[in-house]
Amino acid sequence: MARAIVAARRQRPIITTGALAEIVGRVVHGRPGDIHPATRTFQALRLFVNDELHELEGGLAAAERILRPGGRLVVVSFHSLEDRIVKTFLATRSSSGGGSRHLPEKTPQAATFQVLTRRPVTPDAAEIHENPRARSAKLRAAERTDAPPRQPRASLRFPRMRGRGERGLPSLAAILQGNR
Known about the structure:
The chain is mainly α. The chain is 41% helix and 9% strand. Helix 2 (17-27) packs across helix 3 (38-50) and helix 4 (52-66) runs parallel beside helix 5 (80-93). The two termini are 17 Å apart.
């Protein structure tokens, strides 16, 4: 896919999303009736440019700090990367943790959340029929306990992307037109 984008940029700048979708569609083939092959490409670009996974982690940590005891955290995720972050956050925050037999003992931390949804709540067939974009939605909920919030830590799961900070990220248009 990257080679096809580079080759297309040599011909002329990629200015529209339709042009990018056409390039991706020529390289990535799906089955008839499936979602468009470019959908995942656009999702990956959006995740990168908006730094969405780190924003989600930051939002969860902020919710832990600002919710009062009894406050409810409800998160709707739309793809597996988001859902994995939410699930892991709630799992670690809802238990005092027994530690690992392979690591040194740690002082147990009090649970900061009590999970309200054992499994994610997903839309039923009627809701998907009424709103097809809801097909991948997963809702998870937890209630804040009176334990103090845990110290935030750097993300171990997703390293920050280069180009963030004072310089910022190049625009998607600049990337596709070959200016970056």
